[in-house]
Q: What sequence folds into this?
């Protein structure tokens, strides 16, 4: 078993191995990549699930459709809370959450003061 | 005063003078090229000065450098006190700002009025460098104001865009309240401790000293310290964009000029993190009055929880974004969460070895995250600015016009996700080690989870800009100075990983000489040495 005690040599060796693997992966992709392509190539059309059928008219999946299935199905409730309740874009909603954090800080200070008074 | 301290003292006056001279110069000089050269020259000089300062620190065995403004002794006068931590972060911030200025020279073709742009950007750098180098809590307030006002102006720079005005208004509205609260915190500190000098506050908060200049203590310093630290943390978690004080970031990022986003991400938020670290480890460290009733531990625990929340919320929100820079804004929030997760490991139950690893990971990740983010923003900016678009779908395939942008985006994604052999991997590995050796496996899992979720967001950028065929025609601009910026940063993030043992060892020395007890002692001793030189032997 190869043991390298010098951390710099080990790091350089790992880096070289990883870079070689990345180069190999790149070459594999390059070799296997279909020669034909372009904006009219129907082979790029994908249907991840849940998107509007109009997506099929696009030459490739829009980035907004990438995680459609995960985001809008499995994590629907979590995202509803994050977007519709927290990240509404309204200043008053921001202040609500920010003030809650300030109140926690002040509450902790009051509790600490209470403890010191008791001691 | 030594030449090193004179250099430190000259940095912010130079930047402020250079900034405020531009409106005057604009009456006589109209050339865009002149202002590009002017801004680059000033930021390059500042970079050299910050490098010189840090080199002097290393040569002096990391003994803090003190510059007395106007020759007034501390704590009466304002001082800059530079130890290993702010020396390194000052150098880092000046590098980030230099890159932002360099990128601005290319980006200036998309800006009508560069004079105000550079006035504000130099003002921003003044605020950043002042906040980092200062050794005075009130001067920190002044520099925070300089930073903030420049930041509001830069956020609203594209005044014809309603989104820019809305983002800047919201940012400025809350920012004004925030800075006022910090002002109140300084008033409270002064009323209790009779001093605004950071080292003097450190001595008094640990109840180990009194100063002939600032007297002893006034009234109930416990309640004063508690109130002051509560306000201060709230303010600087806003500046550093920690959840739930993060809301301004996505709006500002989606509307500000691209080099400004790089400056915000790489330097402004990091300044906030630095100030929190300075307050929690130097001014009110483990031996301070804040630690007596478990308040410091409670605060660190809450910061830890918020760090995890920030990491998760930021990475989850990245997945939803359509605007490239808004996505990067949430990515910043996520990384800031990671930084706070390690920053808040300084609880009394944590051993000093674990803390040292955690703080090393903190600084290492600041550098990795900052450079990775600047690389990402520069690469996307090269594609988005000529197209006049920020929507990922509308930028579809455009990086095919700029192979260097594709390389930069790829390297930045690997760096920010944390893949071997990039620096991002090694700083996350150090974080992981700190959590595991600190008996916090849940945090280690959270770190992996946050990285995994955020990778979904980064892949969107990959997918939108690099993979699809080129769908729309776009004017191709010459890469110009952006090409060397991207290449140098790409190599830098790789080298930060390849030489990680040496880099982390170096940062560990910095941590040892700044945030750990030995460094805190040196910070205080430098202050007392200056005092002794005035009052004769103390």
A:
């Amino acid at each position: 078993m190869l043991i390298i005690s010098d951390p710099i040599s080990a790091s350089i060796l790992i880096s070289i191995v990883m870079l070689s693997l990345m180069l190999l992966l790149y070459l594999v992709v390059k070799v296997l990549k279909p020669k034909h392509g372009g904006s009219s190539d129907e082979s790029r059309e994908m249907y991840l699930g849940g998107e509007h059928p109009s997506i099929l008219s696009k030459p490739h999946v829009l980035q907004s459709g990438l995680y459609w299935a995960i985001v809008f199905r499995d994590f629907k409730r979590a995202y509803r809370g994050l977007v519709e309740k927290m990240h509404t874009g309204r200043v008053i909603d921001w202040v609500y959450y920010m003030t809650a954090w300030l109140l926690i800080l002040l509450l902790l200070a009051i509790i600490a003061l209470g403890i010191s008074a008791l001691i | 005063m030594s030449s090193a301290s004179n250099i430190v003292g000259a940095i912010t006056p130079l930047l402020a003078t250079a900034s405020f001279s531009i409106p005057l110069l604009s009456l006589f000089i109209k050339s865009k090229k002149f202002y590009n050269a002017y801004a680059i020259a000033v930021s390059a000089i500042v970079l050299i000065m910050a490098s010189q300062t840090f080199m002097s620190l290393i040569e002096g065995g990391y003994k803090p450098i003190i510059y007395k403004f106007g020759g007034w002794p501390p704590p009466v006068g304002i001082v800059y006190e530079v130890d290993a931590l702010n020396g390194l972060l000052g150098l880092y911030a000046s590098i980030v700002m230099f890159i932002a200025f360099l990128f601005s020279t290319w980006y200036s073709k998309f800006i009508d009025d560069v004079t105000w742009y550079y006035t504000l950007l130099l003002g921003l750098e003044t605020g950043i460098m002042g906040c980092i180098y200062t050794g005075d809590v009130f001067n920190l307030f002044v520099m925070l104001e300089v930073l903030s006002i420049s930041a509001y102006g830069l956020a609203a720079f594209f005044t014809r865009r309603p989104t820019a005005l809305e983002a800047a208004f919201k940012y400025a509205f809350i920012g004004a309240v925030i800075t006022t609260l910090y002002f109140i915190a300084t008033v409270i500190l002064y009323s209790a401790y009779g001093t605004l000098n950071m080292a003097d506050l450190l001595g008094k908060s640990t109840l180990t000293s009194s100063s002939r200049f600032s007297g002893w203590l006034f009234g109930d310093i416990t309640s004063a310290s508690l109130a002051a630290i509560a306000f201060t943390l709230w303010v600087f978690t806003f500046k550093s964009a920690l959840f739930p004080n993060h809301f301004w970031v996505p709006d500002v990022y989606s509307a500000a000029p691209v080099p400004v986003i790089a400056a915000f991400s790489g330097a402004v938020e990091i300044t906030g993190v630095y100030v929190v670290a300075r307050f929690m480890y130097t001014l009110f460290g483990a031996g301070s009055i804040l630690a007596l009733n478990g308040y410091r531990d409670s605060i660190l625990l809450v910061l830890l929880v918020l760090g995890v929340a920030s990491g998760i919320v930021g990475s989850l929100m990245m997945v939803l974004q359509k605007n490239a820079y808004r996505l990067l804004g949430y990515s910043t929030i996520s990384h800031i969460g990671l930084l706070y997760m390690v920053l808040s490991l300084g609880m009394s139950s944590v051993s000093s070895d674990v803390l040292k690893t955690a703080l090393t990971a903190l600084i290492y990740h600041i550098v990795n995250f900052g450079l990775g983010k600047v690389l990402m923003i520069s690469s996307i900016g090269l594609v988005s600015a000529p197209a006049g678009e920020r929507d990922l779908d509308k930028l579809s395939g455009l990086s095919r016009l700029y192979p260097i942008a594709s390389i930069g985006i790829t390297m930045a994604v690997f760096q920010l996700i944390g893949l071997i052999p990039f620096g991002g991997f090694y700083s996350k590995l150090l974080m992981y080690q700190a959590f595991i050796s600190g008996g916090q496996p849940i945090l280690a899992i959270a770190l992996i989870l946050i990285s995994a979720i955020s990778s979904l967001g980064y892949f969107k950028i990959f997918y939108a800009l690099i993979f699809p065929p080129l769908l729309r025609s776009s004017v191709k601009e010459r890469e110009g100075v952006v090409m060397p910026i991207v290449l140098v940063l790409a190599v830098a993030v790789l080298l930060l990983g390849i030489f990680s043992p040496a880099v982390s060892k170096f940062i560990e020395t910095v941590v040892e000489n700044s945030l750990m007890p030995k460094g805190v002692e040196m910070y205080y001793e430098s202050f007392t040495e200056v005092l002794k030189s005035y009052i004769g032997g103390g």
